[in-house]
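pasting input
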Amino acid sequence: MATLKELRGRIASVTATRKITKAMQMVAAAKLRRAQDAANAARPYAERMDAVLASVAKGFVEQGATQPLLVGTGKDDVHALVVMTAERGLCGGFNSSIAKLARHDAQKLMGQGKTVKIITVGSKGADNLRRDLGSKFVDHVDLRGIRRLSITNAENISDKLTSMYEAGEFDVATIYFSEFKSVINQVPTALQLIPPKLPEVEDDSKDNDASQAAYDYEPDEEAILDYLLSRNLSTQLFRGLLENAASEQGARMTAMDNATRNAGEMIDKLTISYNRQRQANITKELIEIISGAEAL
Amino acid sequence: MSQSTFTFELVSPERLLTSGEAESVVVPGADGDFQVFAQHAPVVSTLRPGVIDVAFPDQKSARYFVRAGLVEVNGARCTVLAQDAHDVKDLDSSRIAEEISTAERQLANAGDDHDAKALAERTIEQLKSLV
């Protein structure tokens, strides 16, 4: 049995830990709000981009397009996996669940005899995958020290991807990130970016004037498509980054909430054994005094 | 909805800048500036650096500087997907100077790429006209 002094020390340390986890939870809650606002603000652009891309690309695919960014290289031998995770830990299973999904897919692809190249975004995913797949790493993007994600961060990644793709270094690119469903639910997601899976064009009858109109293209259709495809890449990457940011804070909030609750339970238990121990000591001393007095 | 207005939306990757009814919009298209009124013929165009001029029904107007982007017009809607958009009101001289120096760096990096060079030159020229 621990002594009273030891128990007092442990209660003090668990109380301090609870304060820290509580503070982290509140910080995560505040950051989550901001991250969610950013994700919501970015949504209209992505939606409209999707709509325009779908309607422009549809005609091209029917005519037999040649843009490698749209139709792929015709092979699927080399896969690039872009694994996007956080820069920090202490957020429950957030980082490891993304890494797990990426690892699973990478092993499956390797089992099929494909080559896998991994680009990590955020150091936690890199740490997590290094032991099994470290030899497949080709690039790393550091997000440390970035306070507010901007489209520039996504553009840097998409520039890297585009130049690698143009140099023929991979055939298919997939990004891994965590989709934010709610504070307690984040779903690790794989999304194929190159060649893109195009959203279905909506049924024409719903939106007559918009989709049946024959558009004029300036300067020409091809230039527009090229522009759209490269922008689409950045937009999707940006979306992934923002979803990830919100998910990370959500996961951290939940994890810290659990930690705070556990610390509270632990303090209760320790306090009970502290009080028992104290009472036992008093009783023992009383017995000693009484039996001493009786002996006289 | 009356015939004289249409829905105008300006979105950047980071947020929705404006959305509402407008009477006319001047857009810096890649092949030249053009003005959009209600019932404009459907067109999709890329943008070059320049200023978007919006006239709202209540005599108000707004101006936005865009670096690049895409505009989609059909009879009832005009949507600008801007790559980098700023309300001209929010651009003070120090911000403009900052943007100009970014464009100048791009110009220096452009090297032999004539398209990139022309783009950067136009950006600088447009920015200077705002001062």
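fyi Residues 6-87 of chain B form a domain with the ATP Synthase; domain 1 fold (CATH 2.60.15.10).
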